[in-house]
Structures are given as C-alpha cells and as structure tokens.
Write a structure and sequence with these properties.
One of its GO terms (biological process) is carotene catabolic process. Keywords: Dioxygenase, Iron, Lipid metabolism, Metal-binding, Mitochondrion, Oxidoreductase. This protein is mostly beta strands and 584 residues long. The chain contains ten helices and 37 strands. Strands 2, 32, 33, 34, 35 and 36 form a six-stranded antiparallel sheet that branches. The chain has a six-stranded mixed sheet with strand order 16-17-20-21-26-25, with no helix packed on it. The longest helix is centred in the first third of the chain and has 14 residues. The N terminus is likely disordered.
Amino acid sequence: MSTSVLKNAFRTSKVWHKLFFILCSDQGCSLTSLYRMSCIKPQTIAAAQKTYFTEVHGLPNISPLVRSVEETPEPIPTTVKGTIPSWIHGSLLRNGPGKFEFGNQHYNHWFDGMALMHRFQIVDGHVTYRSRFLRSDSYKQNSERNRIMVSEFGTLALADPCKNFFQRFLSRFEMIKPTDNASVNFVKYKGDYYVSTETNYIHRVDPDTLESKQKVDWSKFIAVNGATAHPHFDPDGTAYNMGNSYRNKGAFYNIIRVPPERDGPEDTLEGAKILCSIAPRDKSKPSYYHSFGMSENYVVFIEQPIKMDLFKIVTGRLRGKSLNEGVFWDPNQETTFHLIDKHTGKEMPVKYHAKALSTFHQINAFEQDGFLMLDMCCSDDGQAINNFLIQNLRQSGEALDEMYNTMSRPLPRRFVLPLNITSETPLEQNLNTRPDSTATAVCRTKNQVFCTFEDLHGEDLKDYGGLEFPHINYARYNTKPYRYYYGCGFRHLVGDSLIKMDLESKKFKVWQQPDLYPSEPVFIPSPNAEEEDDGVILSVIITPVKDKSTFLLVLDAKTFEELGRAEVPVNIPYGFHGVFNSSA
C-alpha cells in the first residue's frame, strides 16, 4: 500500500491529523521511518532494581468475580446481621464492570466490561440494594446488535459484517473512537453525581435511581481529550482534575479546575478552565496516569514511565490492535514530579525526580515546615496494567500462582519534596531535615532534585501482598497532616483483606476471612467526631465459592472490629471505586 493512500486515510479524522503532525514534527521523519521506530523495543534494564515480589502458591480460583451478572433496577431488602449504626444515613455508590460479553464476543481486559452501578442505601440501621447498567452509547449499541460494536481499552471491535468489503477495508483507517463506558468511579461536580472513566465522556446519573440522565463531553468545554476518574476537591467544592490534549504543538498534560457554582439546573461543566499545561518529556510517548496528588497549594502530577505510544494507538485499527497494545513500561526512564501552584496556575521551575516507579492511587499530600509530603501506593514495575486480562483473572492452579508472583507488589511510600529551592541551595547533600524521616532529597542542579522514598509501613505488610485502593478521612484530613489510612491487602490479583495503618507506629489492623474479597474501603466520619478515626469503614464483600452471598460490611474504623453486615441475595463482580452520598 502506498504512502499516499495511508495519508489520505489519515485525513479522514481531525484527531488522526493532529496526532500524525505531532509524531512527524517530533521525530522529523517519514511515515515509513515512524513505522520502523514503532517496532523498536524499549531498552533492557541497565541495572537491577530492588523490587518486591512474592512467592505464593495455591491461590484460589476467583473467576466467578469477573463474570457477567444481571442488574437489579428496583431496590431489594437485605438481611442485617449484627448492628449497623443508626447515625449512618446515606448511600454507598459503587461502580465497576458487570458485563463481559455480547453474543459470542468476549472482552479481553478487566477494564473493558460494561459499567454496572450499585447503590446500598442505609437508613435507621436498615439497608436496601439496587444496581443498574449505565445506558451508555457503547452499552446500547452493543445490546442492539448483540455484539461488541465499540472498542474498549483491551478489546478492538471487529468490522461490522453487514458492511461490504470496501467499507470494512476503509474502516481500518478510522481512528478508534473513545468509549463512553464510564465504569471506573462516581465523581461529583457542582453537586451532581457523574460516573467516569478516562475518556472525554462522563455521564450524569440520578444517585437515587441510578438512571442515566445526560452524556457530557469534556471537550465541549475545554480543550482536553479525556480526564481522570479521580478528581480532588477544595473545601469549597472546587474540583481539580487532569486530562491530556493533542494539539499541533504536541501532546500536553493539563490541570483542570471546575468551579463549585452553577448557573442553573442544567449546568454541567460550564466554567471549567485549564489551569496549566505541561509538556511531556517525549510528546510522542506521553505518560499514562490514573490519578494525581494535591496539597493545599499545589497540584502534584507524577510523570511515570508507563508510556503511551501514540503512533501505535492511532494506528491500532489499521494494525488490528487494541489501545492497551500501545501502553508500555520503560524502566530506563526516571519518574518526575511536577508541582503546579493552584492559585497562579504556574508550574514550579524545580523538577523532582525519582527512580522508575508506577502508581495508580495517591494516599494524601500535605505541606509542612517547607516540605511537601507526597504519600502514594507505588510499585517498582509498571507492567501490571497489561496483566489484568480477563483470561489471567480466570486462571487457576500454577498458572494463576505464576501470574501473581511475577507482578511487583504495591506498597505505600512517602516522598519528601523541599519547596524552598533557590540558587543558594547546596548541591549533592540531603535537604530533608525532617526528624525520623528516611526519605532523601538531593539537589543535582538548581532546578532538579533527586528523591528517594521512605516506607509508610513495616515489613509485615508484605505478608498481606502490599496495599492498594487507599482511603483516608478525606473531608477533614485531605491536604493536611494525618495519622491513619485504609486500604486493601493484595495477596491475590484482587483485594483479599482490609487494612488500617497507623503512620505513627507503622502498625496495622486487619480484617480478613477465607474466600472473602473486599472492595475499596470508604471511611464515614461519625457525627461530632473528635478523633481522626471516629467513624466506620464500608466495604462490599464478595465470594467466588458461594452463589449470591454478597454483603455490605461495616467496621468500626477505630477498632477495626465488625459492627454488622447487610447480606444481599445477588452476585456482584469485583469492582473499582465508589463514594458515600450522605444526602441520600
């Protein structure tokens, strides 16, 4: 096929044209040389890194946790055992994949399943449950044709067999369209609840009925091609988020600010602004990010060596490859922390570097005594995102053990970033003067600081597979010094325990029972709470060994003892994230 034919195909899409321009202007090369470059594999690791792996054998099969289920659109009662405090009044809203096939076509990646929303309503010690599939365009098109019509992260939709040969041939030159299957989280903007993924589409939903109300496109308000499902919030309701854009000048990371005020009931993202744009180290291979950090005065963007090869992504349909095929881990790249002043929108000139690491979720970030503490769950290897194929999650026996044992475990760590760097700051000496801190920060140049972390755990946490899905008392302690965080232990491919960590002692409490797999813990403060851990932890517990045995678990956040559970006679797949809606 000639280069001119390919170029004509590229012009059929504005996004194609922009990304093609970015790639060519970045590399100064022809289409042929771009293709050759895409075949070059990342360099091998120059030196071995200290990475924590496990040696676990006999892991139980969890395939029922990633099976399709039916929705429960009308509320059903639950059976409460123990006591659910009467002061809890509201709804736990959760999101995650709930349908993994249409007809005889199956999704490949855990992230691909159709969004299934859940609501556990708690009133006067009683709990009801309902669930509903998000009526996204992706879901509706797939359902109408009973086949996968819209590509997802790990699944490329095949050409429509109803089209003729020429139409199917031309479809290979189309850009993979972004999905609106918002399966990752519930988020709140201007008082309304939305479900979100990482594309430019979010859906406004009714938090009571879980009905889909409105599809909203970020790109209609600001120049971004997507946004994370993990915004941060100031006390006044101002929301901050991040999203990429692809312009003629290259790819950019963008800090987004959404005001809390609304002009009317139909207001969605009006007033959203790009606070700051950051150029990637390599604009043809920007970093993938799932979330970001925020302190009182700064947004902290972590540019990690999980990379997105834009050439492979935009040519995915042409090559018959899904989006995840363009995501790769480059262990030879350092991690860079960018600080952006929330008030001025200016990126700080000093860049903080660390060894190659990957992170999906931050725990907290706060400023104290001229330092910014950045706490996050991170691994020394970034290949996990491509390990969560559904076929891997459904493995058993030695194959399952091998998959788990080759994955680096996520561990909670703290970086200490000195804020007052000047031309007088001494080079090649540790600037971290905080007592009892083992983290280091060394100036290489006047605008570059290399950092090492300190562990936010003891060695015994490794026996529980590390920790992910972190949560804190967000309303009172986000961007502030804090003592406790909660999360899931991961001695399996999904969370299999709940953990409460005390940062002062590095000791932790655990809730764990055989064959039970908890969701991300959500902290709810008790009325008139005085101490940081006055409240409860909510988590949805599922099991692969008994049918329709889901329950909502309520733990005393202080003692980590079970207070009660609400048993639901339904099956729920293992999900991602959620929030507590105290107004419901």
